[in-house]
Amino acid sequence: MIALIVSTQAHAQAGQSMQGALSQAAPDANPKVIELAVRSAQCWMAKSGSQAARLAVIDYSLPSTDQRLWVFDLTRRTLLFREWVAHGRNSGDNMATHFSNQAQSLSSSLGLYSTRESYAGRNGYSLRMDGLEPGFNDRAFERDLVIHGAEYVSSDFARQNGRIGRSHGCPAVRTAIAGPLIDTLKNGQLVFIYYPEARWLNDSAFMHCESHAAPQL
Fold first, then answer.
1. Alpha-carbon gap, residue 62 to 177, rounded angstroms
2. Is domain 18-203 given the CATH code 3.40.1190.20 in the classification?
3. Which of 50, 60, 84, 199 is the most buried (most CB within 10 A)?
């Protein structure tokens, strides 16, 4: 009977869309945000000819006191992490409302990123990223926007201050989880950062993948 249940679940999952499977794996995530993340990932894979096995989704429309970072295994269609994540100091207080691609802006940047190598830097174990969207996040590497651990990303800090701490634009995470999360996302995986900003939603090439047929993940 157990084998039959497992087989039935696997068969149902195989027939499910990637968006549906990830939304089911993360029921607290906004399914519209998951849809946009999957659409962007599919578009990038089609245009680049590259493949990614994992996708991180950050929803900056949520307050910093919420766990608004999800990391998915795209092969198994499972949720690997759900975590708190910081936004940039000049993006807002508890709620992020302002985003910038400019150097020294101390703001977060929206859009799709591809991860690079991990390294040990001034914030400890960190992960470099390339912003893939011209005009929105393509200065991420030169701005040193990286994933790293930070003591100010914690439930204790949130209880005491009404928000978690803020970064210089980096999507900083809890120190305790930084290592395994970075190891999961390094070397060519995808990070999608969302906020309902009209210009980005209208102009992002990955939201409107017209010239390339997106593969079905």
1. 20
2. no
3. 60
